[in-house]
Design goal:
By secondary structure, this protein is α+β, with helices and mostly antiparallel strands. It is 17% helix and 29% strand. It contains 6 helices and 14 strands.
């Protein structure tokens, strides 16, 4: 229920990320890149999955309790991909992956969408055919290679983004063809969406007024310190259902919000609640 007493609750520190597999991470797309240098694919709204050659791991390094049949016959070769239940099925994918005991029926609806081979070596352009060949050898309907293609100009890129989102997709990924697989975040891998999103920790509940009297008015959340900038707090007051206003995300919970750029002080503009991040390690 609404934790009005939380108004006096001190800030909760963001927990340190657990050690996980050495993953290549994406930055946000920006103008000025040379599009012909990049391969484009759909951004899948699922759970990052890393096959280390023996077991399936979350991005945080926790073992995923997939059924034995799901990974049977997989090669002793690292594969980076997305555990995906289909467009618009993010909650279903998270629910399936985070179960301690695998739900066989739920896993039948999952796909492991492979988008890179971390140990393959060579530039991404050369890793693509190697990846396609490996997935073909696995020959399982729930293991798929993410399609990579080229676009001629930024207008075509924006047009494809619009079509992808209208079909229920989350956005697009751009991967520099000349890039090596490195566990870092840079312009070699970019994500493009119609909106930006990020995460923040719930610090307290702010009670509502008027029609929201007795319910949640807003969350006071804290963004982690990053890029030399200190942690900042802001109010997140839109995007909640009536049920969520009666029983809001608990203090200390990590939540995902969408926004449209930052103001001069670095606070997200037009921030709106999307969902609770059920398991930060995913």
């Amino acid at each position: 229920m609404l934790a009005l007493a939380g108004l006096l609750t001190p800030a909760l520190p963001l927990s340190a990320a657990e050690a996980g597999p050495p993953l290549m991470l994406a930055k946000v797309y920006h103008a000025g890149i040379s599009l012909q240098d990049y391969w484009v694919s759909e951004k899948l709204d699922g759970v990052r999955g890393y096959w280390d050659g023996e077991k399936l791991l979350t991005r945080g390094g926790e073992r995923i309790a997939a059924p034995a049949w799901f990974t049977a016959g997989w090669p002793k070769v690292p594969m980076d991909g997305e555990l995906w239940a289909g467009r618009g099925q993010f909650v279903k994918a998270v629910s399936t992956v985070r179960q301690q005991t695998s739900d066989d029926a739920a896993w039948r609806a999952m796909r492991f969408m492979v988008f890179d081979l971390p140990a393959q070596g060579g530039p991404f352009t050369e890793r693509i055919p190697a990846l396609n060949g490996l997935v073909s050898q696995i020959d399982q309907p729930w293991v798929k290679a993410v399609a990579q293609f080229k676009l001629s100009n930024h207008q075509a890129l924006q047009s494809l983004l619009t079509k992808t989102v209208k079909r229920g997709g989350e956005g697009l990924m751009l991967h520099r063809g000349a890039s090596l697989y490195k566990a870092q975040r840079n312009d070699d891998l970019l994500k493009l969406k119609t909106h930006e999103d990020s995460e923040a920790r719930v610090v307290t509940h702010i009670p509502g007024k008027g029609k929201y009297a007795g319910k949640l008015g807003a969350l006071l959340v804290e963004m982690p310190a990053a890029d030399g900038k200190p942690a900042q707090r802001f109010k997140l007051g839109t995007g909640f259902s009536d049920a969520q206003r009666l029983d809001p995300p608990a203090i200390g919970t990590l939540v995902t919000y969408r926004f449209r750029g930052l103001n001069n002080s670095g606070i997200p503009r037009f921030a709106s609640f999307m969902r609770v991040r059920e398991d930060p390690s995913l």
